[in-house]
């Protein structure tokens, strides 16, 4: 589905903030001037700026106008979720490795919380949804399905594990990171022995079906397996460029605007002379 013009403008500004083409503390030009530079209407620009304001990616300061925030300290999951939705943006290995490290720690934690919730509840646990998801993944591996489809199925299994924790914060974090997790797991499946991985996964699930005598030992074993499983992916990511790059403009107006360096110092009267495309 094609994106609206406000979404395209927001994607461009988000990408420029993340690639540090727009730096923390930079002041954006007045709305009319910025609309001219981007070659967009002011209503669409205003809607895009409102989106960024809700993410805290920009801040309106009385007497100073609109100022770019520090994405490292001021933004939240919604900013990251939008980053993952920009296909024109190459994220860079720094972010991907940080995400991988976080997910590698979060999944064993979620498993422990889910098990504690399972055995604390007096009700008989309903494993039908999780069982069906694992069966779909198993069939996909046997059928030689492409890595992206297997990744979507495995992420669905992990998301169901998050639901089983009963922790809404974990569930919200999983939803916000679903796109980047699918991207990472897709690449992982391209690098590993998928049938062997699935056998290990099913083995852990069977051991979790009955209350383990040594839960901490099981979680530690699972953590070690996750670290081992993702080692090829970690090496692959480390070989990529560390910093993000905007490969082409998310703003599809024929200008291919991929950088606004120097924009802030250009007087409004010189807008027509500014080279906007690279």
UniProtKB/TrEMBL annotation:
Keywords: DNA-binding, Transcription, Transcription regulation. SMART domains: HTH_GNTR. Gene3D superfamilies: Winged helix-like DNA-binding domain superfamily/Winged helix DNA-binding domain (1.10.10.10). GO terms for molecular function: DNA binding; DNA-binding transcription factor activity. Residues 3-71 form the HTH gntR-type domain. It comes from the Bacteria. CDD domains: WHTH_GntR. Transmembrane segments: none annotated. This is HTH gntR-type domain-containing protein.
